[in-house]
Write a structure and sequence with these properties.
The chain is built from 11 helices and 16 strands. It is of the alpha+beta class. The longest helix has 23 residues. About 2% of the residues have low confidence.
């Protein structure tokens, strides 16, 4: 697998993009379009929140036939909690865009991100559709990445190339996300383009695995969004031998897809609202895979742990306290806790000797927390961040 340093979602064969400002935001690009020149196999993973935004519901319905050719994305307005009007607005935009592109309406998906509870500025979007379509090109991915941002401080893209039976295949993706981040997924959008020829069942399976092991392994503030969407379009233009489930090629494709998703997931955590530190939490020795996940998320979502890290405070007792409150089977006397590669708690007793050394190491940007429950063979990793005053300020003012 080769990571393409200058790769974008335009790098896979046959994908055009465009972005512009339609007036939802004052000046920054706020409307984007991703388009495959041929109809593509498509799969999606969406938020598990019971409150789902109108474009999420539209996407779930339109993907019942497992195909798509275009995705329109707006930032600045989530079109969520907007009832029938919101659903009608999303449907209208997708239908009018399908006419501009000369596609069946079912092949157009829509994603939105931004403030919840405000009606979509559909007139502004509709007015911009002709220009959005006319300007489609093979070199506008960077502008597209900027257009989908909300509180992000930088755009997020990654691309890789693999060989499927000596045929070069490219997988690329763009994402946004910085706050309201919690498994399952986050307040995030991710759009993946690939020119791979993949059987639909294999595409769905690979995407689910990749999302489970990337976007479902990050947490910033314990909040689950209403608009989360990860969508992949595979147009087959690489003309490789078809990737089938459980084949060697499927394993190679799946590993590359997971890499792309995990790189973006880590970027999202590093861009967390107000965050200064990247935190990796490893739980070992759990009784089951589920308990390993629950334990890691309990630490990641603990406000006390997050503020401890933000303050470079070696108050490590907050970590076992968070674990003890979770639905996880372990005995305190068997617990081994390592913070910044230093064992601080073992066999039910504190073993920390160099308090100053721990304070010093906590000032680093990358923080490691490893817990061995010593109660089984399962493990899980979650990526998180600290919680700062800046996070509070951002979300006090976001509307």
């Amino acid at each position: 697998m080769q990571v393409l340093k200058k790769g974008t979602i335009n790098t896979p064969l046959g994908f055009k993009t465009n972005a512009l400002n339609c007036g939802i935001k004052k000046s920054r690009p706020d409307l984007a379009l991703i388009y495959s020149i041929v109809r593509a196999q498509c799969a999606g993973v969406f938020t598990k929140n019971k409150v789902k935004a109108a474009p999420v519901i539209l996407g779930i319905n339109n993907l019942k036939d497992n195909h798509a050719q275009a995705i329109i994305i707006n930032s600045g307005n989530a079109n969520c909690c907007t009832g029938k009007r919101g659903a009608d607005d999303a449907l209208l935009v997708s239908k009018l865009l399908s006419k501009e592109l000369k596609l069946p309406a079912i092949d157009v998906l829509m994603s939105s991100t931004g403030v919840i509870g405000k009606y979509l500025s559909k007139e502004k979007i509709i007015k911009a559709l002709p220009e959005l379509v006319k300007g489609l090109g093979f070199n506008k991915a960077d502008k597209t990445a900027q257009a989908i941002m909300t509180t992000d401080t930088f755009s997020k893209q990654v691309a890789v190339e693999i060989k499927i039976k000596n045929k070069p295949v490219t997988i690329a993706a763009v994402a946004k996300g910085a706050g309201m981040i919690c498994p399952n997924m986050a307040t995030m959008l991710c759009f993946i383009t690939t020119d791979a020829f993949v059987k639909q069942s294999a595409l769905k399976k690979a995407l689910k695995i990749a999302v489970d092991e990337s976007f479902n392994c990050i947490s910033i503030d314990g909040e689950m969004s209403t608009n989360d969407s990860v969508i992949i379009m595979a147009n087959g233009l690489a003309a490789n031998a078809q990737v089938l489930e459980n084949s060697r090629e499927f394993k190679e494709f799946g590993q590359a897809l997971k890499f792309v998703c995990l790189e973006l997931a880590k970027m999202i955590v590093k861009d967390a609202e107000g965050a200064k530190k990247f935190v990796e939490i490893n739980v070992l020795g759990a009784k089951s895979k589920k308990e390993a996940s629950v334990a890691a998320k309990a630490i990641a979502n603990s406000i006390l742990v997050k503020t401890m890290i933000a303050g470079n405070n070696p108050n490590w007792g907050r970590i076992p306290a968070a674990l003890g409150a979770a639905d996880v089977d372990f005995k305190e006397q068997k617990l081994v806790l390592t913070l910044q590669k230093k064992v601080v708690f073992k066999n039910g007793l504190p073993v920390l000797k160099d308090r100053y050394g721990l304070i010093k190491s906590l000032k680093k940007k990358d923080i490691d927390i490893t817990v061995n429950l010593n109660n089984g063979k399962f493990k899980h990793t979650v990526y998180s961040s600290d919680l700062t005053v800046e996070y509070v300020k951002v979300n006090m003012a976001y509307n």
